[in-house]
Amino acid sequence: MIVDRQQQRITHDVFANIGHYLRPNDVLVVNDTKVIPARLHGRKAGTGGKVEVFLLHDHGEGMWDVLLKPAARARPETVIDIGPLQAKVIERLPDAMIRVQFTPSDIYDLLEQVGEVPLPPYIQRHGHQDGVEDHPGKDRERYQTVYAQQPGAVAAPTAGLHFTPELLTHLEQLGIRRATVTLHVGWGTFQPIRSAQVTDHRMAKEYYRLIADEAACIRQAQAHGGRVVAVGTTSTRTLETILQEIGEVGAKAGWSDLFIYPSYRFRIVDALVTNFHLPQSTLFLLVCAFAGRDLMLEAYHCAIAERYRFYSYGDAMLIQ
């Protein structure tokens, strides 16, 4: 779906033709975070009680913030055996998080052996779908962008799932630049807005980074009259966070809890590639802020009528 904000017009095409709607010197800003197998199943040392460990934030040297289920087994000094890994509970943190120390401290390679890809809760697996076998191995491949590089996300930046290496090469040949940010998508992306007032909702913090060379690529595109086309809400929030923090597109790393909802004034993003989102989600509010509530509601009603697929493995829209 192509949503033209200026003309207030909605049209349809296939994603492979996205280059028809971009211009030479436009810059696609993609999020190169890589989804890790963040759901682990272990047993409490001594009693053998089952414990699920959900990885959230890597603080280095084997120290992680996690969620434990059941939370009652999260007393300090508790040790959880997870195959070749051990996790020792250090302390309880706000928002139901637990800090643990892993042994060995470098867990990423071992996660491939013992971890599961944490698919969104609305994706149900029942053996086969559309003639293709559904199992965690398939999702490890599908639920990852082709440009994923930096391990640390527990959910994919799903707008990027539509791009193939061939399409990216074609766009480059058309003179469309590409720059990379990193934002490690956290568990908060699954959380609906439950507060009565939108302004009372708080986003979970997520780590982001923009390095100097990539920032320079974005500035060069702007200098040549190109638009900043954010691929996904995560790239959008990263760029807007940096503009709020330092007032320009520059190298920056930190933790973002930026919540974008209608009345927000965008400072850098000119166009947005995004999927169709859950109702009552922060993601839907972001696209309403970008395109206007009425136009987005019209777009979503149109998508339903045209039988678009929604959510992580669904279809895309370009808002420009």
Write the topology of this structure.
Layout: E1 2-4, E2 9-11, E3 27-31, E4 33-35, E5 39-44, E6 50-60, E7 63-69, E8 79-82, E9 85-92, E10 98-103, H1 108-114, E11 115-116, E12 128-129, E13 132-133, H2 136-142, E14 150-153, H3 165-173, E15 177-183, E16 206-210, H4 212-223, E17 228-231, H5 233-246, E18 252-256, E19 271-275, H6 282-291, H7 293-305, E20 316-319
Parallel strand pairs: 1-20, 3-15, 3-17, 4-14, 17-19
Antiparallel strand pairs: 1-2, 5-6, 5-8, 5-11, 6-7, 7-10, 8-9, 9-10, 12-13, 15-16, 16-18, 19-20
Helix pairs in contact: 6-7
Protein name: S-adenosylmethionine:tRNA ribosyltransferase-isomerase
EC number: 2.4.99.17
GO molecular function: S-adenosylmethionine:tRNA ribosyltransferase-isomerase activity
Summarize the structure.
By secondary structure, the chain is of the alpha+beta class.
Structure description:
The structure is a single chain. The chain is an alpha+beta fold and 320 residues long. The chain has two domains: 2-35 and 138-319, 3-Layer(aba) Sandwich (QueA-like); 39-116, Beta Barrel (Thrombin, subunit H), CATH 2.40.10.240. 22% of the residues lie in helices and 30% in strands. A nine-stranded mixed β-sheet has the order 2-1-20-19-17-3-15-16-18. It has a six-stranded antiparallel β-barrel with strand order 5-6-7-10-9-8. A hairpin with a 4-residue loop joins strand 1 and strand 2 (9-11). Helix 6 crosses helix 7. The protein is globular, with a radius of gyration of 20 Å. The termini are close together. The model is unreliable at 127-134 (pLDDT under 50).
